[in-house]
Amino acid sequence: MGSSTAYHLLSAEPSMSVVVVEKDSSYSRASTLLSDGNVRIQFNLEENISISQHAMEVLETFDDDMETPSYRPQVAARHQGNLFLADETGRTAALAGIELQQRMGCEVEWLDAAEVTRRHPMYRTEGIAGGSFSQGDGSVDPGAVLNGYRNKAIELGAEYIDDEAAELLVGEKGVTGVRLGSERVLSSEKTLIAAGAWSADLARPLGVQLPVVPVMRTVYVVSTTVPTEGLPSVFLPSGVYALPENDRTWLIAWSRPEDPTGYDFTPASQERFTDLIWPELHARLPAFDSLKVETSWAGLYAVNTLDGNAIIGEWPEIRGLYLATGFSGHGFQQCFAVGRYLSEQILGLDHTLNLGRLGPSRIIQNQPLHEHAGRLI
């Protein structure tokens, strides 16, 4: 989010002074690099759909657009498609989502249970009403996107500082700057908090109470006898998902309400996969009866406990304080549109996309803006 915003700011106003403060420039614990890289059009909220449409457009030419003399990103986009299976309880919401997506020009279709079985005989569809499918959904390399935006922003004039934002400074008229861990003070009337799961910690001393908590999620890398070629990423009604990575290797995870909060990056145990995830996976996908957990990793979701959606824009009570947080696990794919939106707001330009409902005012007013249950993963 920070690098995307820096790039868009300097693209629109080359004379700006833009500084990005990175607590860890290796990004080893950044949610971007720990993302599985899934990108999808299938949301049920108009703002999220339009954000995804923009992402798909940008990704088509991202490698060319972000190339610098020293770096050319390779996002390696794969359009294996996403298949969201729905039971009878979720059918109505899934069909409503498809109707909205199609009305907005998205290529998405409803497959009834028989069609799911015809296309993918390995899936067991007892108790399944069908599934929503978009062939354009898929995966990209998060590291290539991050480094693409970062290197291009630097070429345009952005300064990156390896330090910690220790304190946000506010005066009578609004933001005045940032005090770094090194005691250096950066003076600025406009500051963006784009610190992922750490965002609420930065904002809290200012009296800004964000409903954003760091939730640890584990992804398992699993080798199987199931060939990945020609198979879409599949999302079960329970929330278990399996993403084809390469030949017979899958990324499998399940976000649960009891997942731990805090800044622990220790992956959950293999027993969690064996005892909890595997039975649920095997019940729907019998072909996964034989598999091996090769490795796993853990990363943080910046979970917005109010409604699970992004908080983007200027905090109404502090002039010059902007936020990009609370993405709840789908932030990586939204960086393209959010960076542009924030740059337009910071510069006072007309917005290309109307994302006003995702602004911080709803947090103050306690007015949630939900997707339907089961869609937000």
Summary tags:
9 helices, D-Amino Acid Oxidase, Chain A, domain 2, alpha+beta, three-stranded antiparallel beta sheet, 377 residues, 18 strands, FAD/NAD(P)-binding domain
**CATH fold-level label of the largest domain:** FAD/NAD(P)-binding domain
Strand content: 25-35%
Helix content: 25-40%
* Count of separate DSSP helical elements: 9
- Classified in CATH, the superfamily of the largest domain is FAD/NAD(P)-binding domain
Mean pLDDT: 95
Class by helix and strand content? alpha+beta
> How many strands?
18
Q: Helices and strands, in N-to-C order?
A: HEEHEHEHEEHEEEEEHEEEEHEEEHH
Largest sheet: 8 strands, mixed
N- and C-termini, Cα separation: 19 Å
For the record, the CATH architecture of the largest domain stands as: 3-Layer(bba) Sandwich
What is the CATH top level name of the largest domain? Answer: Alpha Beta
How would the global form be characterised? globular
Rg on CA atoms, Å: 21 Å
User: What strand line-up does the widest sheet have?
Assistant: 4-5-3-13-14-15-12-16
Describe this structure as you would to a colleague.
- The chain is an alpha+beta fold and 377 residues long.
- The protein has two domains: 2-70 and 141-211 and 306-365, 3-Layer(bba) Sandwich (FAD/NAD(P)-binding domain), CATH 3.50.50; 82-137 and 218-301, D-Amino Acid Oxidase, subunit A, domain 2 (D-Amino Acid Oxidase, Chain A, domain 2, 2-Layer Sandwich), CATH 3.30.9.10.
- The protein is 28% helix and 25% strand.
- The strands form five sheets. An eight-stranded mixed beta sheet has the order 4-5-3-13-14-15-12-16.
- A hairpin with a 4-residue loop joins strand 9 (174-180) and strand 10.
- The mean pLDDT is 95.
